[in-house]
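ARCHIVE CARD
SHELF: 3
SLOT: left
DATA:
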Amino acid sequence: MLLNSPSHAVTTNQSTSQSISAFGQARATVSDLPLSPEELRKIDAFWRACNYLAVGMIYLRDNPLLREPLQPDHIKNRLLGHWGSSPGMAFIYVHINRLIKKYDLNAIFLAGPGHGAPGIIGPVYLEGTYSEVYPDKSEDESGLKKFFQKFSFPGGIGSHCTPELPGSIHEGGELGYSLSHAYGAVFDNPDLLAVVMVGDGEAETGPLATAWHSNKFINPIRDGAVLPILHLNGYKIDNPTILSRVSHEELEHLFLGYGYTPYFVEGDDHPSMHQAIAATLEHCIEEIQSIQQEARSTGVVERPRWPMIVFRSPKGWTGPKEVDGHKIEGFWRSHQVPLTGIKDNPAHLRILEAWMRSYRPEELFDHQGKLTPELKDLAPTGMRRMSANPHANGGVLRKMLNMPDFRQYGIEVDRPGQIEVGNTQPLGVFLRDIMLDNMDNFRVFSPDENSSNKLSAIYTASKKFWIAKFLPEDHDGGELATDGRVMEMLSEHTLEGWLEGYLLTGRHGFFSTYEAFVHVIDSMFNQHCKWLETCNHIPWRSPISSLNLLITSTVWRQEHNGFTHQDPGFLDVVVNKGPKVTRIYLPPDVNTLLSVADHCLRSSNYVNVIVCDKQLHLQYLDREAAIAHCTKGLGIWTWASNDQGEEPDLVMACAGDVTTLESLAATSILREHFPYLKIRFINVVDLFRLQPDTEHPHGLSDRDFDALFTLDRPIIFNFHGYPLLIHRLAYRRTNHHNLHVRGYKEKGNINTPLELAISNQIDRYSLAMDAIDRLPQLKVAGAHVRELIKNMQLDCLKYAHEYGIDKPEIVNWKWSF
């Protein structure tokens, strides 16, 4: 039962039977009254200014300060934007600013419900950063008019916290990633505070649910802190949110179970809510600083209970309470544009004007249209403004990695195709030494798979981070440590979010995962690519380190796990994205993998996708040959070709490690039985070389492509992924009609490696038979050899089904020409 108390007072709320209403006098876990009457007046006025700007962004194209009666011509022709979450986010932003000034905090703000961007863009403009970045949006009436006009408008900015917004590292368009981004941002940033507003709709997503566990991966000595604020405004687009309708007891137990100390603030009464959130935020900041001070003074690393806040306020707070007989404030109808048809509906126009005038803009802005000095003084200055914090433009803080010479990790290759080595093991040693030389700005991420992916050498530089309970057996090969820099959690979503947050704030990282399950982060990859693509057109956004993905445990060596683990389709997703930000590499051996990894780790503003299996594979190129081959991106392997000085009868091409092996074996079969046949062997490392140079920066010119792949000769292309992708990349090429692609065709089970290859027709026998079928001179003359090859293929299948393994001559095959 709530106590009767003055309007400025706050009722302590610890009862499990409290109302879940967002209305009424503030109810809070912390009941102090830290604001003086004058501070309260000013903070409320600044918040009113934020809300006024939020409404203006959605509705106005003229008359920005309402210095004349509002007319239909002052209204935008198309009303876009989201009002519902904006007031609550602006409320928190304003109060964080107070604490930045009081405690000299180094803080950034992440808006989980990024569609509530007006609530963030408003304070960013008021504290001056927006006008510094966009001088035409000056801090006066003329600039404010343009500021309103260009929100969610062609040629302007989007309706989310897009890269164009100073201070943003999280757009919040696709929900679920704010919390993992926040935690990634504070890794190795001991003085940074990331305040993240988690929307209650966003909290229903899988990625967000797993990200709550990120508090178990923060080392309070070397890392900064995240203050999550769950914003319960009750509704999504037109449905209640789950967490807003459960009891206080359930919510408290939920977050206690996640390992947090939850603090509640709820209500809609302005004075008491200001006091409640001011007290609660200050309490949480002091609690965070106490945790950090204790750990840093003692050197003892234990898992603390970090604070978090459950903040309940009405959706569309301070907006119209009712329109046309329908509830607006505190209901889903306030989610986007609460008032529509303004130009044609005089009643709605009057409601809009009354709504905007309720913020009393004449008290907030001077005669020039500037925020009054006493309010301007509430905001931090310089880089202490969250919108100007360099961590939110991480490229300005980015330092190049100290990189050892990758050549020293390569292997000796005296003759191509004679020795087998696990391709990713030397990469693990390379990453180990990169880690040793960059112990404060490089981390490795993987969902419980670094050892499986043969990268375990890295543990000699740094263990897997673990701050939860240790058991005695963990010391026997567990590779766990409270200062570990290898981040492992069985959630690709959370790991990807951490990595993105880490990169966006100026650091470097490397992510390895199983090929079939990289699809879990398809959407996150999409969103990051869109962010990078946009940043390429924003001059003040400095380049960040590339997102490097090693996709291993690949389709052709997942015969033991079966059909569910066989899916090379992530490459198709990558090709959908902008050519300026995407790269795909398929190194076939150790030395090419090292060369590619070195290049990717030095690059910026790309998503680099490297596909390379972890198992034993034949080795083909020595160090210098590998560097030359990777520099070109594709090329003729002279040692595997016999068409020197002549036009080839056949082009045998490949991309991928297993497909390279099978293509070489097929070439060997053809040359053995048809020694007069001229075969050109081409290996592709950089997949985008297949596209024309008019379509991708790495694309080959038509002249270069034709010189390699000929104008009219059959091409048998053995591809790691789905065959149609190669056709998609090369469809405009002169000789495309002679391009015959083999690749994964969704045929798989528990197989031997060769049986899986045969099922999908990427094996040596299928390729050799395909070549015979495509060459006019062999269609008839090659019939006997074709029959022999078919019988060899059948013998291999029979052997596999009888013994469960491939024939020794398959397993031990070497290049012999």
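SLOT: right
DATA:
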Amino acid sequence: MSEGLVKILDGNTFVVSDARGDIEASPADPTGLFSYDTRFLSKWVLTINGDRMNPLSVDDLQYFESRFFLVPGTGTVYIDAKLSVIRRRAVSNGFHEELTILNHADEQVELSVRLDADCDFADLFEVKDALKKKGDYSARVKSGKLVLAYDRETFGRSTAISSSQPARVDKNGLTFKIRIGPHDSWSTEIDVVTERLGVEESERVEDPAKSRRRMQTGLERWMNQAPRLECDWEPLRATYRRSLVDLAALRFSPRIAGGRSLPAAGLPWFMTMFGRDSILTSLQALPFTSELAATTLRALGDWQGVGLDDFRDEDPGRILHEMRYGELTAFEERPHSPYYGSADATPLFVVLLDEYERWTGDRALVRELEIEARAALDWIDEYADLQGTGYIWYERRNKKTGLENQCWKDSWDSISFRDGRIPDFPRATCELQGYAFDAKLRGARLARLVWKDTILAERLERQAADLKRRFNRDFWVEDGEYFALALDPDGAQVDALTSNNGHLLWSGIVDKSKAKAVARHLLGPRLFSGWGVRTLAEGEGRYNPIGYHVGTVWPFDNSFIAWGLRRYGFKDEAAIVAAGILDAAAFFEGRLPEAFGGYERSATMYPVQYPTACSPQAWSTGAPLLFLRTMLGLEPHGENLVVDAALPRTIGHLELLDIPGRWGRIDAFGRGRVEVEERRA
């Protein structure tokens, strides 16, 4: 998203405007008021006596609320204004806006205040792909309200706009004819309310003041329950607070979750439930809050695949990839109701379930989800092994609107050979095998400990051992001493050097004899930029430092790489990776984006922004939390939490207080000792 945009959000309702508070969306521009994957307002422009506003400043009050300070006029040279304008906006079943105009002159003024409004009711996929609408629009004035509506057969969406002050309402907006005395002010409150056909009134309508109090109270409770961070490096404190606030903002309560929250993936394109994103974010956040993991597991278990459906790429036991609520999904022009085209969410579901139990001791949830976990483990062997080789492969069955690449690097060119060639399908990417290995071992632990099924546990352990042996033989690139990105349909190695090697360390599938070479690559000059580990190594055929998955640095990716390095004993290397990303966070005011440029750190004074990165994004928001875990070396062992800190010297001392878990609450401490400067050059 472009710079200068102001974003407020609550769950999957969000508003994106310019610095004036105005909205002027083009068909392919993700600005406006969005809720449940539909744009409910595409134009919202304030004028006074026909003049647009000039922005003075924007207050980021809370994630759900902003305040704009404006003056009339469009000149490039500021002249002392006789009028100023304050717009205070908060998300609330749409949004609630308080408009205040102040007269600083010694005489009365007469003003014509206009708010132009319109809506294209675009499905988020239509915005992303610039598609045309197929339904009918209408605009009417009803009981002093402007009602904009869109209807297509049984699908209906509408936006109702009303004001607390008298206004002349027409089909294009609201006009206020007002007089303001000398050194006086005028204000009105405007409600922009979204409505979805067939949604109960109790779910749709909430008093704006009550909504604001609810969100404020919820945020305060969320922050107070999180562990307290004390350290002598101010940027880390700011990043930690920003991460907690953004994670609160991205909480989404789908109806299936019964009022509980899970992480939506990211603004603007992914404000909904994603299997992979919700699982990995919940893993990152586990040392700080376990409620996201519990809700994610339950919701994904409820939506687990039960049959074979080629349109949705559904299999029995498969965990969903993405759930959508817009028009294209309603008319089955997109398969997201839900869509199951992810090859990694299913084994990661089992990984999260086990990690959740290790942290919380909540065996009741493990028993509750036994059927779903067993089905997920069965999917790995019965439906994911498309080639009969004992590996997870993927190939979409929905050739028109399904995802081609069903791993986390899901762009079209993300999977390539060293020379840049693109392999055919099906594909078996390396990290999928690591996730399967980890899922089998963790499933074995749960089977033995909770489900009391030693036969299943022993079978899973045998399968995991066999998978590890074959994987280290088939994926290892001998002449480069790293693991291939994937296997092609003929079993040939797709031999590009990528960050996926770090996920292999995290999963535990790497032979110890190979781990040192893998770590050396991850911290070597081709992959490590000084800011972080690149997705694709410099020098590979498709390397591009601002290519989505072919050379950029992804903070979430690096957080799991650091976790993997810690798993194999590379404490210093993990600290160096953490230091690079946390240094970058300071340049993004504590809010790490989805991705940033992979340019060498010595060539840039600051990390280069990726043009269309989502921000905030859930697993980028979770990355600093996982870095804190890896730097402090936090690992649950039975009823205890082990602390084994290895911090970069940029952090003199670090305290994380009141870490929740099965042990109650516990504190962790560490001091910086790892030199990082030589890795930044």
